Structures
1.
Amino acid sequence: MYSGSGFSDWEIGDITVIINNGVYHLFHLIIPNHDYIAHAVSRDGISWKRTKNALFVGEPGEWDDDMLWTMHVCEVGDRFEMYYTGLKRKDRGVISRIGLAESPDLLTWTKNTRNIFPIAPKGIYYETVATNPRTWLSFRDPFRFEYKGEVYLLVASRVLAGPVSRRGCVGMVRLTDTDYELMPPLFNPLVYDDIECPCVFELEGKFYLIGSIREDIKVRYWVADDFFSEYRCFHADVLLPQGNYAARIVQDGEHLLIYNFFYAYGRIDALRVLPPPKELATGPAGRLVLKSYYRWEQKVIKQIGQAAMGRPRPLFGNQSANLKAGEDSWTLGSRSGYEIFCIERPSPAFIWEGELSVEGLGKFGLVFDMDDDGNGYFVSFNRINGEVKMRTWGFNPVNNRENFVFKDLQSSFYMVSNPNSFHFRLLRYGHYIELSVDDEVRLTLIDYAYSFQNIGLYTASSTVTLSNAQLKVLSEPEEEYGSQEEEV
């Protein structure tokens, strides 16, 4: 993982990632000053170290002398281009424009001062200063995309008419070497205040558009048959659950990766961290699904089969609980009340996976990073309604009037193929948590609440069988504060 924290814990802003000669390059904003674009590098796409800063605000009087906002870095011919958002002090920072910087090596950047930059709206399709009821202008977050020999920029912008809080659209600019043309919005859903960090890509013959939504801090997506076709949503259109934001994609060989930053503790002014990427694939009816990053298997240093995990032990001594532990399966349950059955994790960094089968109409789920009093993380499965939820649950010693912790961290809905049996995969790496159900990532978050030794399952008026389980020990994570310089 990676956090750019210094004096402030929430320095990481919007991001872009590009891979060159096997090295992953991360560029990101510095919050809250927005005075430069930082650069970090990685050999595995997970652990990062800072290197030479890429771009700084302009000199007084220049069009970008106030702040730098979202950027997109891409390879074009024998050079690299960075399209970025700039603000000007004379405008009091309320007008965003699009500029360009160029580099031969991703390390040294020169701002392009051709006549067509910076690019600003002209009032043809999008709000301008004169037609902007919010008093601050969205024309930002560029994303470069080539289609049939033409070059386009997608831009987070707003249409000229409609309810003020629903004008957010994905604007579009066509670029040539000597000019630019404002085009009608690629997508105008008539529902959001802004569609931030728009991004488009082709996958399995369909075109997918993703955007980050400020209203609920989620990443959503839409699909079309062609780049210029109508973009449609699915009934479940959340690609990354709450807390994940500013997502952008990058091609990594045969793998299409999605990166984003994460708001820890659910607050935009709290710690921001760059989680490991996920992979994008398509599912039934062309919906997008998240897959776990392929490099996790490369970090496995030891595998432990279920027979070698030891016998689970109950924590609460529930008299109605029962346990039958064989070599390749455990069957455990409780007729009344809760019981938690635990083993000791082999390492703080691990993958735990297996097949879960459930009988009865009661509750069940996973626990991890738990102490012997039942303080830790709980993952609940609602197999009837297709919901998985993660929460912190335990004792609160600082408030005797509310001496419990019970906080939902993240939830996700999905289609249930078999309500009685499924495959789970729980990944814990540093403070990163990832849960897959039937090989699709459903929860992805970072949390710092617990780090105890127990992992296991809980039941309440249900019987659960865990079979064919494995524990995979991962190499230790590196420090997430990326302050050390790396040679590239």
2.
Amino acid sequence: MNRWILTAVAFLVAPALAQAQVTGNAFNPAISLILDGKFSSYSGDLDGYDFAGFPLDPEIGPPPEGLSLGESELVLSSNIDDQFYGFMTVALGDSAEGTEVSVEEAWIQTLALPAGFSVKAGKMLSGIGYHNSQHAHAWDYVDAPLPYQVMLGGALGDAGIQVRWVAPTDLLLELGAEVLRGDSYPAAGAGDSGTGTWTAFAHLGGDLGASNSWRVGLSRVSFDVAGRSYDLGADQGGFYGSGSVDIVDGIWKWAENGNTRARTLVVQAEYLKRREDGRLDVTGDTLNGTSPYAIAQDGFYVQGAYQFRPMWRLGLRYERIHGDNADLQPPLNGLLDTSGSPDRVTAMLDYSHSEFSRLRFQVASLDNGQGSESQVFLQYIMSLGAHGAHQF
């Protein structure tokens, strides 16, 4: 009798144990850690990216001179179930106050919506342009292009919702739109009750034979600014108004006979134009006043990366920005005067022993419109653990 009771219990319990085992192993995220270290040297004293007439995000600036540890990234990603995918990137960095921890991205995305649609929700890098959605460890150069640094604070990322649609065509045709909170530069203050930034973008691309592929895109960002900080040293300002950024982007990739391990060439370019209109309030020891505020800025970069043999690449990049700002009223007149058209020429050489390790040497000549300096960087980027494929 006892034997039959034990058999019956085992028959009833075994499926439950098996189900518990499957459930316990079902969420097994890919985990990776990106390590980034640099040595930086500057010949001049331009205080990084101090461009007359170009108000910048306070977070933007060059790496500190000498040895430094850049941001390390902890990345987790996994299918949540057959309907959703989850992704999170936590950035770890050093500062004068100690270790800084920030959430760079944390979002979920649908996997099974019909008719080519997908929805992403959470904190994300926007899908505008080409460079914007790339993480720093995937860049071809140590730093972001000047137009992105000046006009988007390096990259537009914020909490929000994104909707994408991919057409059922031979050519890639992708349309997307986003509603973002509006806390991140160039927006501020989460205007419109926490929906202060709106974006729209379109991408078209395809292949040309076995060796060539291409993609072009158009994007627009519209944003409200409810009190963006304007640092004037002894004085502090606040900008209130609205603005927009328009982007045209394009990329062409060549791989000999489609073999990306041999010789490859990647050429990409983007043009950005930013407009802002509103008022600037300044209070401080030397300036106190309010003035209408209107700026028009544009800029572009063109860059290439040539893999001349397996593991080795050479790159060259040219960038230029220009400002056409309206005069401020006294006593604030002169704050937005634009001196020249800052530009930078950069060359790099890197070696990647595998997809998980990269060593890079980079030199640049920067002219900020008032003076010039040379910049030299040595960088390592190491990836520990599995990570997803990078974007096209």
3.
Amino acid sequence: MKNHLLQLLQLDLFFREYKFALLCFFTAFVVTLITIPPIISLIRRYSLYDMPNARKEHAAPIPTMGGVAIIAGMLIALLLWFPFSNSVVQISFFFCITVLFGLGLMDDLKDLSAKYKFIVQFGLATIIALSGIRITSFDGLLGLQELPVMAQYSFTILAIVGITNAFNLIDGIDGLAGGIGFMSLTTIGIFLTSAGDMNTALIAFSLGGGILAFMYFNINPAKIFMGDTGSLVLGFIIAVLCIRLMDVNIAAAKPVIPHAPVFVLSIVLIPVFDTIRVFALRIWNGKSPFSPDKTHIHHLLTNQDFSHGFTTKVICFLHGFILIEAYWLVNLRQEFVLLILITFMLLITVILKNAGLLFRKRISRNSTV
């Protein structure tokens, strides 16, 4: 009887802790789910398609700007359940989301230059840093604790712009950016709640609900893409929430994540590592880091005739494994965990690049037997 009552008490505490998180999640899910079909019809009427080109995987025009429905779902959920205030942090954050949403919308409609988008992103990242959301400490990583003020601003701006564009660049095949984004947002939301920052966690759960609904229409074969309208906002919010998680965890009397910087890095590791790898390869080959090609992590499989669906499942599985691995290893020295994660990504890159050869060898052996 006592055990039964204890289980009920734990369930009640869990529900109370995640009550508004679940309300935000399901509200955003429903709003996005019912908003996407009209958006697809509107896009088809005005021919606002994502057209195939040298750097894209789809062969036929596909409706884009699914991000409009995702952001609409998130904002309506927050309007209903989020405790808004006049704090500088909140005003700055939602101002930046509005501007970035407009930037993504313009890019989907008119294909803006990368230079212009970078200038706006650097400006928005600076606003976030000035508002108080900054990487203040490396928590002992590489022997670094609290950072000098200028280093805080520099690392924060670089991290926000880098992660924003990393998610934008990995949005190359059906379901990939959405799958990684949903897993990352859910993880951030859970740990923010555990750290006591339930209000900020609502943003993660709201966007996560919208992303999950969008994926119903985006899983291969995709009926709509999120476009830059969605991927830029997705990357930006994940970047800001990751920094917030680090700050809240370090400031907590009892941190929920030992060595938060490395764990937070694992949340964005695949997009960030892939972007750095691709840019480095392009520069090594004497090309612009922004020149179009098909060398991203998803291309390593699709170039070998693996389907979009299979490729997305493999990379999302790897992302989940990295999150679990990083959490399992949190009690190790941070530098060891960082080395393990980087080694794992290098190994995975080699395996994925040669997956077709490995599969062909296996098939040929089975056929000879």
4.
Amino acid sequence: MKRKIKYITKLELVENLSDNEKRDLKQVTEKFAFRTNNYYNSLINWDDPDDPIRRIVIPTLEELEVWGKLDASNESKYMKVHGLEHKYPDTALLLVTDVCGIYCRFCFRKRLFMNDNDEVARDVSEGLEYIRNHPEVNNVLLTGGDPLVLATFKLEKILKALAEIPHVRIVRIGSKMLAVNPFRVIDDPDLLKLFEWFNTETGKKLYLMNHFNHPREITDEAKRAVELVQKTGTTLTNQTPILRGINDDPQTLKQLLEELSFIGVPPYYLFQCRPTAGNKTYSTPIEETLDLVEAVRAEVSGLAARVRYVMSHESGKIEILGKTNDLIFFRYHRAADPKDRGKFMVYRRNPEAHWFDDYTELVDEYRVEVQEEYV
């Protein structure tokens, strides 16, 4: 029998919240959408007001503090046709849904869940045609929203269409579903058959890019879902932002990276939390976070330590490499502008910086002419 996961979109239906909490937090959910489910709520220690799983999904009044932008990385700049972003030559993003298993409070695409948003394409045919006409695109990322919210037959149509495009060699699915509702995988053999078909019959490769933020999300059920997906020949990886009060302490981050490597879901990226509206309470200073990342990387195996600490900036994916007493070093891991590819950058340190712009907007004070010794 398939387990019944109950999705909750109204705060007043969360039984573990007091009436006062529901009343106070209503103003937050009127601004930013709310969604959770009974499985994910069961992971919360409701006796702890600072519980990290609670911080992931339950609103806080701090989200109302004015800070950041709804589209912090200016993704709309790279929207080529409805529902498709094309920022780097070889990679296209298809926004296939505006729904997730839960709505993370720190989501960088929370704008998609607002009533007046129209970035997601219910019909992806225009995006598929764009990919067909751009032979430089060899990998496609299905995102949104969470593609695994889609019914399997809808996901099948998209995967079969992509399989018929000769120059597309890789399809990635960005999903937090294994963390928030592993029964989506465990109880759907048709989904697993679809994954296996794509990996064995098309000559192409499927990747599932997971989004485990905290080790408590790696439950026995989640591990079972991971095993089932692995058996289909799908490659699994993980990416997470560093989040204040969730995974920004050394022991938690170390445990997360290690547990992921133990179950065969190697960590891929650690992201700087984007300066998205409502996210100030989750953001950590870059230089403080760099110390955290390097301290943890020194204590885990090479499989876990290969994770990269990056920012998904408007201009590209910028890796934070290291620092001295006075300077901090960056490099474009991916760049939207060809002239920036691989570019190495040196700035004077700014302990208050939460984003790359906090260095570049104070060029006279923080920029350093790159001397030969730094190249």
